[in-house]
Amino acid sequence: MHGLKKKRRVQIVLVAFAALAISTALIGYAMRDGINFFRSPSQVVEEPPHANEVFRIGGLVEEGTLQRGAGETIRFSVTDGGATVPVTFTGVLPDLFGENQGMIGTGRYINGVFEASEILAKHDESYMPKEVVDALKEQGVYQEPNGS
């Protein structure tokens, strides 16, 4: 009788461990498309990601590269001072989007062009996303915003 209780406890522990492992695997599988890593333009140029990888890129919209009104697709380049990546986007840009402004885009890097599915821009005169500030500081081109 004593051996049967011990055997049952071992079975319960093994089943619980298996259930935990399966649930962890299922959660990881479900989250794989929901996690987007941030990369600076320098990181994208140094180690180009696979064409099917969705990630976020951020930096400053390079002056003189914003092309609007040439069809549905808007073209511009994003830079962190160390490298520049051309970007295409089909859709409506945020109101505060412009040249020499901070931005973050979500999309894929295909054939040397970042094809954005979503573009975010700064939301006031002095805000810049932390990831963009860090990337610009790393390249030595970050300037503190003027204002209070």
Description:
Strand 3 and strand 4 form a beta hairpin. The model has no long low-confidence stretch (mean pLDDT 82). The chain has a five-stranded mixed β-barrel. The longest helix has 30 residues, at 2-31. It is elongated, with a radius of gyration of 23 Å. Helices cover 31% and strands 28% of the residues. The protein has three helices and six strands, in the order H-E-H-E-E-E-E-E-H. The chain has helices spanning 2-31, 41-46, 130-139, and strands at 38-39, 55-61, 73-79, 84-90, 102-110, 113-121. With 148 residues, it is an alpha/beta fold.
Oligomer: single chain
How far is it from the N-terminal to the C-terminal residue, by CA? 77 Å
Number of helices: 3
List SSEs in N-to-C order.
HEHEEEEEH
Overall 3D geometry?
elongated
Low-confidence stretches: none
What structural class results from the helix and strand content?
Answer: alpha/beta
The residue-averaged pLDDT reads 82
Strand content: 25-35%
DSSP helix fraction: 25-40%
Largest sheet: 5 strands, mixed, barrel
CA radius of gyration: 23 Å
Number of strands: 6
Lateral strand order in the biggest sheet: 2-3-4-6-5
What structural keywords apply?
3 helices; 148 residues; alpha/beta; 31% helix; five-stranded mixed β-barrel; elongated
SSE layout and pairing:
Layout lengths: L1 H30 L6 E2 L1 H6 L8 E7 L11 E7 L4 E7 L11 E9 L2 E9 L8 H10 L9
Parallel strand pairs: 1-2, 4-6
Antiparallel strand pairs: 2-3, 2-5, 3-4, 5-6
What's a quick, concise take on this entry?
The protein is an alpha/beta fold and 148 residues long. It is 31% helix and 28% strand. It contains three helices and six strands.
